[in-house]
Amino acid sequence: MAFNHLPAGAHDALTPLSVTPVTHSVPMANDQLPPEAGVHPAPRTVLDRLTTGADRAARITHTEHLPPRPGRHAPWPEKIRPEVVEAVRAAGIERPWAHQALTAEHALRGESVVVATGTASGKSLAYLAPVLSALLDGSEAPNGRGATALYLAPTKALAADQRRAVKALAEPLGKGVRPAVYDGDTPVEEREWVRQYANYALTNPDMLHRSILPAHPKWSSFLRALRYVVIDECHTYRGVFGSHVAQVLRRLRRVCARYGADPVFLLASATSSDPATAAGRLTGVPVVEITDDASPRGELVFALWEPPLTELHGERGAPVRRTATAESAELLTDLVVQGVRTVAFVRSRRGAELIALIAQERLAAVNRSLPGRVAAYRGGYLPEERRSIERALHSGELLGLSATTALELGVDVAGLDAVLLTGYPGTRASLWQQAGRAGRTGRGALAVLIARDDPLDTYLVHHPEALFRQPVESTVLDPDNPYVLAPHLCAAAAELPLTEADLSLFGPETPGLLAQLEARKLLRRRGAAWHWTRRERAADLTDIRGGGGRPVQVVEEGTGRLLGTVDAGAAHTSVHEGAVHLHQGRTYLVRRLDLEDSVALVEQADPPYSTTARDTTAVSILETSAEIPWGEARLCFGSVEVTNQVVSFLRRRLITGEVLGESKLDLPPRTLRTRAVWWTVTEDQLEEARIAPEALGGALHAAEHASIGMLPLFATCDRWDIGGVSVPLHPDTLLPTVFVYDGHPGGAGFAERAFHTAAGWLTATREAIAACECDTGCPSCVQSPKCGNGNDPLDKRAAIRLLARLLKDAPKDG
């Protein structure tokens, strides 16, 4: 029997809510309102209020205090146009910070540069100053078009937000700067104006891939004059998505060269390890890095918060900790009551909806006007819904927001006092990015990391040095992934026939892939060039977000109203027939999932339960690329094929998590060719570790779960990017084997990172299991919220012995 642990989309990330009565830190009469948002209490005062009463203080495992830091100024480079300097001064900025001036200097010299400094350090101005100067220079050209610039953001909301900022800053510059957003929400009649007249186009990699590059002749005047390409939040381009964007940027450089342009890349990133290397891998050009943050910083109080154990028991009798979702909703309620402007970040769309819903219900008991001051913000909303929430947040109408990373990368929020992180966001870079959303005008701020009941979160709140004493991660991406590269070669050939001169641009795997694409009759060689042969659009061959197909539309059956979308990869587990679906605080039941038309039909309902999908998974080894002996054990890395099928779903009571029943599903299996790390042990090693045959399955399964939970500490992934399978006797190795694989076709670089850091990764895994205070295994150590086998069997103590024996012979640099 194989025990599996699936990547993103496999199961709902939420464990059942355990709701306890809310105890407000600041009691209020029903007719009272919170203080006005202009009042900004000190972060320590806010934290003291949150920990008043009940057992709140005991939930804080560590408090980190980051003192305020003064700023360091520098003069603008001489080549910055005086009109730009005056416009910046009119906006209230007398002099730039040193890193802003240095970034502009490199840009003006024609050097691609990445500025990797903290949140709210003024990265936008660092690249806007040289861009605006170039656009003003160009406006004096005879044709009036002159230089152009392209801005790329990972989300539509961020591009729209940047346009507002650019428009405000450039207003004194007159018609010399003409910014315009070009995305899927841009009306057709406006798109022609953008192509013909805008000189600063703000878009996203998806539109560049699907719309701009395939139609490059229509963009020829813009691309011919392209001076700068701004890539904002570039640390988000990691894994498969980052690999796709890397190839889109190579296609952009190739088309620009066709029109005689060689743009300079200006990248902005959260703090990361070795940002120049990551930026160079993303763009394919040498990049200079600026990492010395010269901006001032207000005081930050950062608390680590562990929800308490409840009297409930979960699967196999394991103790159940109060969910981070319920805890975050309660804290958000208290903060709104205090008038503290707060955003609560949460990993899943469902979690964002639940936190807002619970907070609204509790606030209604305090004052009937308060529920309207809290909202949810996530991907999948319709454009008008997103814009409305963004306006309310900017105006201060909203005091509290529960949001996915769509907000982390979406809106430049000012004036927040506190940030709640509902679970570790997956990387230290994201942790600091989210925490930096509060106190963005230099005031003090409070950040609270609320641990989920899983191995990594539990480990981190009890090992604060892993968060506060370690550097942020490096960005992992693999542009040479053949599953990524092949469709982009087709798209490039459709844009302009590929020649021998293009091979080095797209990487060393290109010649071999061109031969395969010829054999599949996707490309045809004529003379010295390869041509696209099909009538359909080559750009439609791939979804650069790695979703594996077109999104599934969620439609209300009775009215035909489109509620939103769900990624294709998540459809089998989140909108299967009978699934509970949340949207803007309303609950729906999925009546039918039509995979052929990519539509899920739902109707509004109020079931007293949540749903969780269950599945089966098998892994077969296709190729072993690397193998290291650990004594008799073997650590391996290579290509695998994963076959997964969702077979049923559970209905769980909302409050207690009690299983109400299981329903079978008839969904087709899905296969995934990807990269994996795996390890094997021998009978002699099992005997030395005192693991009996009947305990072997539980030991392997527990070690697999815990190792998946700990991998984000060593690679820029989260547990939803990866999956795993453990088998007491695998048919390919003929030994007990544990696999951890990338949840994306062709791999994302995470399993490879695990292979190269295996000794540290598995040591931390063993320590995390051993340190947990439970007796037989719980969600804090070896149970997984997305286990397709219902966390059965699991043997915590045998897993500790197994990992200790495995690590005994691990090479010290392994």
UniProtKB/TrEMBL annotation:
It comes from the Bacteria. The keyword ATP-binding applies. It holds the Pfam family WHD_HRQ1. The keyword Isomerase does not apply. Residues 331-483 form the Helicase C-terminal domain. Residues 104-290 form the Helicase ATP-binding domain. PROSITE patterns: HELICASE_ATP_BIND_1, HELICASE_CTER. One of its GO terms (molecular function) is helicase activity. Keywords: ATP-binding, Helicase, Hydrolase, Nucleotide-binding. This is DEAD/DEAH box helicase. It comes from Streptomyces aureoversilis.
